[in-house]
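Tokens as discussed.
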């Protein structure tokens, strides 16, 4: 019998949400095409991953600190 990946992903997401604050985000109209572009080119397959990458890159660009 195949494992139920959907159920496993839901359970994993619930465990994560129980420990991490959720941030609801509605992108500005000029930002949405940027997010869609990065999703389409495969920067990350999930919107949260794209947002994380863009925030880290912006932070590094502003501060010069890659690890903070």
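Sequence:
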């Amino acid at each position: 019998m195949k494992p139920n990946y959907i159920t496993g992903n839901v359970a994993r997401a619930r465990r994560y949400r129980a420990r991490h604050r959720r941030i609801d985000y509605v992108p500005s109209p000029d930002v949405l095409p940027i997010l869609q572009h990065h999703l389409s080119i495969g920067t990350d397959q999930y919107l949260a991953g794209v947002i994380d990458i863009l925030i880290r890159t912006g932070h590094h660009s502003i501060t010069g600190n890659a690890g903070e």
